[in-house]
Amino acid sequence: MTLCAAFIPYSVYVYTHGTEVSHIRAMTDEARHGQQLFQEFNCIACHQFYGLGGYMGPDLTNVISNRGPAYARAFLVSGTQRMPKFNLNESELDALVAYLEFVDTTGRYPADDYRINWYGTVVQSDE
Amino acid sequence: MMNDNRDMIGLQFLRLGMLALAAGMFFGVIGGFQFLFPEFLRELLFTKTRPLHVSLVVSWIFLAAIGGIYYYLVNQCKLKLFSPRAANWHFWIFLVTGLAILACYFAGRFGGREYFEYPAVLSIPIFLSWIIFGVNYFKTVFKSSEPWPVYYWMWGTGIVFFFITFSEAYLWLIPYFRESMVREITVQWKSYGALTGSWNMLVYGTAIFVASRISEDPQIARSKMAYGLYFLGLFNLMFGWAHHVYLVPAAPWLRTLAYAVSMTELLVLGKILWDWRASLASYQIHKHCNAYRFLFAADIWIFINLILALVISVPAWNLYTHGTHITVAHAMGSTIGINTMILLASVFFVIREELPVEVHSGCSKQVTFGYWMANVSLAVFFVSLILAGLGKGFYGGGSFQEMMLSIWPFLLVFAVSGVTLMLGIWIVLFSAVRLINLRLSPASGGALATEY
């Protein structure tokens, strides 16, 4: 019973303050549409955000700041040997790039500025 | 031998589960080769083969655990199932929903959430089936006049927490969660971590049940160690999930807490099974040879996975292992090496109990061959994934394609050992399904008597 009693406030904390990140900007309608398309095409089967997803393709968390929106768009338009060409229209391409731009603002992956404590935990510079 | 309908539902779940495992491994092998040769079966994209593989294999775990629970409650614990009709509804809802999910995958209709890649509307019948199962389970075990052995607690907890965590996995449908990337991904993996904990409750409860029955020592399921495992498992289920999201910028103490509680439950389970093996007389091993050997294999895989789990739970090492094939090695080692071995032990225990005449004591040659083929292949498969993961984790270049080329030899070994792993498991399943069919079709009884 004690465990269950602790689990409820703990979960509420995770749903609220524990995942409150002030620097993330609000999602635009276009990014929302992109998120929906990302799920409809099941992109997570091959790609990852924060290292979570399939390993057929690269992690996309910071593809925009690392490579630029034009690079991401070019892959979406023509596909690759590993990624099929999805025949997306202009509006869909814009939406997916907008979604990737939104994801890019949420954090850095892999961590590039961090220190490791003696007991093995990792502290990133923005924490 | 009982021929009424009461005990058939458990066997039907087990049989369906084995078919799901056989099919799931097939799609896993196709996906493995698509890693190497992206043009391979281009019509069946990796976006389809991956969810086909994952959903079918996860279905196997749930179906086999549920089938065992139905079977054990009625036939071993001698409880009257609260509602056999509800159990039948449970089976048919599971089957029809499963077929609808597979059809959606083949048709390319996705909900696009990792592990739950089917359209979200199909989660409704899944919820419904678990409500039916939960009511039926608790109404049945509440009839027991004795204090509950630990497996009743574990099964009940697994059912309740499946419901909680499966609900949590769909919080993304609410914009408050969906529109904050950090919240969405953190809650998603909180739910997945706990969901895995809930199925582990079902599977580990089954392991303790089978171990206590083979050894004919009910105290195994009533010992302080067994209850210690249960509480530790529950603690892990609730608070030990955050190693999945060490690098997501959520509150740091969530990660530190998860680091502290990680993986202690496996250690205790290993201790229980180790003690149990030491206490067995040779005739008991011989009588339940197949079930015993699969539990033995699970015991070995627990220790191997424990070491890997501890390594990847250290945040400083997780920096290099996260997002690599080492995570896949951990997942495969756990679902095949631990869960599948325990559930196959349960299947063969049920078979031995159901067919005491047709299945003689001792291990059959066919199962022995499949058992060794599967376990040796799994070892190669596991090591190749770790090497591929190390290659990816320590890759210093900038190109994804070059990184994939650098780990290609390990992925080739992974794909080939995946084929032999599948064949080994298929050989075992073929034998088990044939025997269960024998029980489900009494008219053909005795047909295998000379072989086993």
Number of strands of chain B: 0
What structural category arises from helix and sheet content of chain B?
Answer: mainly alpha
Number of strands of chain A: 4
Major beta sheet of chain A, specifics? 2 strands, antiparallel
State the major sheet of chain B. none
Which term fits the overall shape of chain A? globular
Q: Report strand % of chain B.
A: under 5%
Quaternary structure:
heterodimer
Interface with most residues: A-B, 58 and 62 residues
Tell me the radius of gyration of chain B: 21 Å
Count of alpha/pi helices of chain B: 17
Count of alpha and pi helical runs of chain A: 5
The CATH homologous superfamily name of one domain in chain A equals Cytochrome c-like domain
Describe the protein in words.
The complex is a heterodimer of chains A (127) and B (452). Chain A has 5 helices and 4 strands, in the order ααββαααββ. Chain A has 127 residues and is mainly alpha-helical. A two-stranded antiparallel ribbon of chain A has the order 1-2. Chain A is globular and about 55 Å long. By secondary structure, chain B is an all-alpha fold. Chain B has a domain at 281-441. In chain B, 75% of the residues lie in helices and 0% in strands. Chain B is built from 17 helices and no strands. The interface between A and B is large, with 58 and 62 residues.
Structure in a nutshell:
The complex is a heterodimer of chains A (127) and B (452). Chain A has 127 residues and is mainly α.
Task: Supply database-style keywords.
heterodimer, A: 127 residues, mainly alpha, Cytochrome Bc1 Complex, Chain D, domain 2, two-stranded antiparallel ribbon, 5 helices, 4 strands, B: 452 residues, globular, disordered C terminus
